Fold:
Amino acid sequence: MNGLINYVSCGVLWLCLVVKAPDLLRHRRDPYLGAICAVLGLAGLCFLLGAPPTVGAVNRLSGVPNLAAPLTYAAITGYCAASQVLIVRWRSGPRVDRTVRRWTLAYAAVVLGIGVLFALGDAPVERRTDLDTYYATTPFIAQMIVLYLVAHLGAVTVTTFSALRWARQVRGGLRAGLTLLGAGALCGAGYSTAKLVAVGARWSGRDWSALGTTVSPAAAGLGALLTVVGVLVPLVVPRVTEWRRAGRTYARLGPLERVLDDLLTRRALRLPRPRFASPATRLMWRQTSIHNALGHLDAYLDRDLYDRTRAGVLAATDDPERAEAAAWAAVITEAVRREADPARTVAAAAGGGAPPASPGSPVGPPLGPAPGPAALGRIADVLAVAPPEPALAAVPSGTTAAGTA
Structure:
């Protein structure tokens, strides 16, 4: 009688509980998190108490034959109640607290009944795997078995219908989670149904104990796995979606950071690159580096170049956002060049008849606040295709080229 599967299942469930525990500690009064942690904790406890080695240890240490049975039944009953409470919390509504209280009181009464019936009954022979069928005709013990099985079947049936019916009304990660939770509850129904059939067969003189020792544990294990995945999916999917979005934005800003790379390195404007960081943290690091560079370039930004480029692209595309991105790309590219070699830029401007400017002096009126996150992405898109040449951006045809980029 090896309890490896039970212990592995318990370990996985409690590992998930450990992962969620910090959130629960930070938000102690969040009933939704409390329900999730209760489901994970009680599901793991069911597997732990149901493992044959644990059953033997509990019975031996307590000195009471089969004491592990009512403890396991109580854990299963608590798990059923927690699953139903979780569904109620998910749905929310004006009567959530009242419904939760009703479920809690009902299953507390079931747990109390299990304890009383076990105390009234007599189960002197230890049975680690087939207690349900072995004592199916024993007074009080038989009633205890039927009580917990019927309570379990009722809870998982309600959970199955509630989860699957609600899953049709929602989308995304919540729908996937509810579908898995409903499937897990359906497997749980298979667990209690198989045991009830085995008990009924025992009443009629047949021995179908294999249903309770092979079919039921398999159904319980699969049901717990699906339930836990269903509980975690709505929590994981939004975070994964956020990470994917952050990763795409991080990659999208790459061309803009490459244009600013030399400046960031020379002026030591880039923060240390975070290691083993989440995509959101890496995105923040890249955005901070870009804003540091743009702040340093503020005195080199050419307002006239910005206006000419924006006007030309706007006339060609009739797209204000595209025109603004192309104009920013042009002035950033030129500002980087001016900052890197201001003397040559001044000489070129004087040779072309333009009034010379001192290195680092503002060129025209200030451009205003730096581009926001969305605008940075559009600027990077322009630079990714073809960095605009300032000389071309000074005439409408050149701005069109920048805009179509």
